[in-house]
Write a sequence for this structure.
């Protein structure tokens, strides 16, 4: 079964998804006039505004989450296994050149992230005083294709709520076993119990926990990586040289070749930053803001934060150590070994703690993506309760006990199907994101510091937009 899934993944990724991801990213970059580069200053300004806008009903403000909290939840699902284990896996299989292609997919993919999150804000709806939305909602409202919306909702629930959570648990257990020798079965049960307590508390509790965990560990990991890089600053030119040469197949280090480097770089880059996968829009829609473009820009910044900062730190540590050339392990164990070679025995312990917090925040963030789409399919609280038990409980335990290869293959399979579905939708609806961006820029040029959107500004789809009165 594992071999069959691997073969299917190779076909889908080699002949379909890579072309679609890169093609859409380049198109969105061109149509937004390189917004992900030109508007970085505006992204940073918006991120500092952690208080929810009150344009859409100040009396319900206590029920909403701010743009920063939405950013924190989306980064929580991005920053984790993909950054520490996924990068190591990409280098072990595809060589150092995979890092270059991770950078490329992040640079162009941030435009894709902008488009999908802006659309999620545009088509969001109210549900029990909260905003709710995502690709399933803009597919149904924008494309008028209920079947496609339900298909997406099912795929994202299978991907994030179930298979993705298994890989987070698998990585946590592997890291803790490597560092402390703890038994995966017991660790899995403990993680499941903790996750269930949090997910039954709703999106506000998820947002609160994610914003704290991600901030603390991301800063700590970046500081440690920066110290290691400074200690080995003389090796950095060599690291960049190895990455670039291997990216284009000029060397044959650790599995080399442009095909292997590109495929693994793009695949692991997408797993990490999720640009185009349709996941981040689910939480982007929840934020209370005055204009859809605001959350689109903030989510584009999230892609940069994930790949260009955190993933690069892991890559530099591994390449500086030189252990990638004769890897005896991959995934999180390779990252732990690389850190151990640089800072001693404290390295594996630090990574174990970091991956526990990163991956645990990913588990509860992933759960919410599934919840939003379960609610789209059915209002049944019974179905939601069963999903909560499966997502935060059973799949976490399954991931703790399953093999490394099986959980990664399952994630790659569902990730490919999910991304393909979302890319079709945003390619067809992207024109509205472009018009919203033009409106946002025009208001800024007119001296309006905080642009405001009303649905009457898009009269041809005004009846399809439930919020933005």
């Amino acid at each position: 079964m594992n071999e069959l899934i691997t073969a299917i993944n190779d076909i889908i990724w080699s002949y379909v998804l890579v072309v679609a991801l890169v093609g859409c990213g380049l198109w969105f970059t061109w149509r937004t006039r390189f917004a992900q580069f030109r508007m970085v200053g505006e992204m940073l300004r918006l991120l500092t505004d952690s208080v929810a806008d009150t344009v859409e009903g100040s009396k319900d403000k206590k029920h909403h989450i701010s743009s920063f909290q939405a950013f924190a939840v989306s980064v929580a699902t991005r920053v984790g296994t993909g950054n520490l284990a996924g990068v190591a896996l990409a280098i072990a299989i595809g060589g150092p050149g995979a890092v270059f292609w991770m950078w490329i997919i992040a640079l162009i993919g941030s435009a894709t992230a902008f488009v999908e999150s802006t659309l999620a804000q545009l088509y969001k709806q109210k549900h029990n005083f909260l905003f709710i939305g995502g690709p399933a909602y803009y597919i149904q409202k924008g494309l008028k294709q209920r079947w496609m919306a339900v298909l997406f909702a099912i795929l994202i629930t299978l991907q994030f709520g179930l298979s993705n959570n298994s890989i987070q648990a698998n990585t946590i257990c592997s890291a803790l076993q490597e560092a402390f020798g703890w038994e995966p079965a017991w660790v899995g049960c403990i993680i499941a119990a903790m996750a269930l307590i949090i997910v039954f508390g709703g999106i506000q509790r998820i947002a609160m926990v994610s914003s704290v965990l991600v901030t603390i560990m991301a800063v700590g990991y970046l500081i440690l990586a920066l110290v290691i890089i400074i200690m080995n600053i003389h090796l950095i030119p060599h690291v960049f040289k190895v990455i670039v040469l291997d990216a284009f197949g000029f060397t044959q280090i650790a599995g080399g070749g442009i095909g292997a480097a590109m495929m693994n770089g793009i695949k692991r880059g997408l797993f990490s930053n999720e640009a185009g996968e349709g996941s981040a829009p689910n939480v982007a829609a929840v934020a209370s803001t005055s204009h859809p473009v605001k959350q689109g820009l903030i989510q584009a910044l999230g892609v940069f934060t994930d790949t260009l900062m955190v993933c690069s730190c892991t890559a530099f540590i591994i390449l500086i150590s030189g252990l990638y050339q004769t890897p005896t392990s991959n995934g999180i164990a390779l990252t732990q070994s690389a850190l151990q070679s640089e800072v001693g025995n404290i390295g594996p312990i630090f990574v174990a703690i970091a991956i526990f917090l990163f991956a645990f925040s990913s588990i509860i963030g992933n759960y919410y993506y599934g919840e939003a789409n379960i609610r789209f399919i059915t209002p049944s609280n019974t179905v939601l309760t069963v999903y909560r038990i499966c997502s935060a409980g059973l799949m976490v335990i399954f991931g703790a006990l399953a093999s490394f290869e099986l959980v990664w293959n399952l994630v790659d399979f569902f990730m490919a199907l999910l991304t393909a579905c979302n890319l079709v939708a945003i390619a067809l609806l992207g024109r509205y994101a472009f018009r919203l961006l033009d409106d946002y820029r025009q208001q800024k040029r007119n001296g309006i510091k905080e642009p405001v959107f009303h649905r009457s500004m898009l009269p041809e789809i005004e009846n399809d937009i439930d919020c933005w009165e």
Remarks:
- The chain is about 75% helix and 0% strand.
- Residues 99 and 312 are 8 Å apart (CA to CA).
